[in-house]
Each structure stands twice: as C-alpha cells, then as structure tokens.
Design brief:
The protein contains three helices and four strands; from the N terminus they run E-E-E-E-H-H-H. The chain is of the alpha+beta class. The radius of gyration is 26 Å and the shape is elongated.
C-alpha cells in the first residue's frame, strides 16, 4: 500500500491517482513520489465575459462546454414510416 502525502490515504500499488483526493501517485525507479493535488486555474471575470477565439496552438486538449439537446418523440412515427416512402415521410415530419 502507498500512502498519499496530500491526504494520508492508503492506496493499492496499482493506483495511479489517490482514491481519496485524486492526487497523482507517480512511481520513480526507487520510491513512490506523490504530488499534492492542485486546483485547476480559474478563469478571470474578463475571460468569462468576452472569450477570445483560440488558435490551435493555445487550444487545450479537452474543453468543457454547455450543450442543449432537444428530443422530440413522435407518437406512432415508426408505423407511419413503415407505410410511407422516405420522401413522403420527410414531408410529414417537416409539417
């Protein structure tokens, strides 16, 4: 078991991150080195209100975005699609 220096929790040898605090558990050739967790940088108010377009060189590998998804269930649509040809069904759905 490896003990996290960030929170003191014991972790199995196969863990790469602490199971309690999420700190990285990096194994060197001779001993376990544990880095304490660091919070992600918080954007300033100016970054939130007027984001500038990112260039590929400054774009991060992953980005969290808000997304709105709308789902519409058409009652009996499967039966109607079986009876109509695709072009006719498209017109029915558009209407």
């Amino acid at each position: 078991m490896r003990r996290c220096v960030g929170c003191g929790a014991e972790n199995p040898p196969r863990f790469k991150f602490c199971g309690e605090c999420g700190a990285s558990l990096v194994v060197s050739s001779q001993l376990s080195v544990v880095s304490s967790p660091q919070p992600p940088p918080q954007p300033s108010n100016s970054q939130l209100s007027s984001p500038e377009p990112r260039t590929p060189s400054t774009q991060s590998a992953a980005e969290r975005r808000q997304l709105t998804v709308m789902f519409c269930d058409l009652v009996g649509s499967t039966a109607v699609s079986d009876r109509l040809d695709p072009e006719e069904y498209r017109e029915v759905v558009r209407t």
